[in-house]
Prior knowledge:
This protein is mainly alpha-helical. The protein has one domain (8-240). 62% of the residues lie in helices and 6% in strands. The protein contains 7 helices and 3 strands, in the order βααβαβαααα. It has helices at residues 37-61, 76-104, 115-127, 146-175, 180-199, 207-214, 216-240, and strands spanning 8-9, 108-113, 136-141. A 3-stranded antiparallel sheet has the order 1-3-2. Helix 2 (76-104) packs antiparallel against helix 4 and helix 4 (146-175) packs parallel to helix 7 (216-240).
Amino acid sequence: MPKERKVYSSFHDIPVREYMYFPKGTIESGRPGRFSSLEIRHLIISMSVLTLVFTLLITRNNLIYGLTEGFKPAIIPKGLLFSFLGIVTAFLFHEMFHKFMAQKNGLWAEYRMYPQGLILALFLGIFTPFIFAAPGAVMFRGGSRTYETGLIALAGPLANIIIATITLPIYLFVLFEESLIGELVGFICLINAFLGAFNLLPFGPLDGTKIIRWNATVWIIMLIAAVIVLTQIFTKFSLVF
């Protein structure tokens, strides 16, 4: 009898029965680079909700124009642009790096949304000036070993840090705040640096916990890099906006 496969989460360890769906054939067809129609739907729903929530956050708190000007409906289109590209580069890339690393190690892996987390994020986005999002996670099956779990956990924050590291010098030395593109690049850098650093925290189900179990030295290097980039972009972004 084959050993029962264990299910892991890349971001949180909410009980699997609450949001895991395995339609017939999806696990067997989990080849590298493969996406099921269910996974695509879950990604689209999650990205749509997150884009809306971040748009509300940006237009209410004026993260682009500063915190003292009040709500401006006129910047909603700009907020949508910033939010969508921020979600694509931060959330989608983060989850896909988890997925592809798991598939590279011979595991079945698909993203599953967490409906309760999305509803909570939407509620906070509409009724409060704050946001907390637990939209879902890449789930993988196949009995991964410790180092494989560590590599899969590492892949998500690594994607964010790479994007933040590339966009930081472009923002600081090429574009700065002189144009819409400059503001957008700065925002993408900020959200990626924050998400990467947050997921590296060694608490509970965050990626940092899994990375430490595998290799504490790698975790320290990653955390230092994330904090350096986050400090640089947050300081400059705050001074400008």
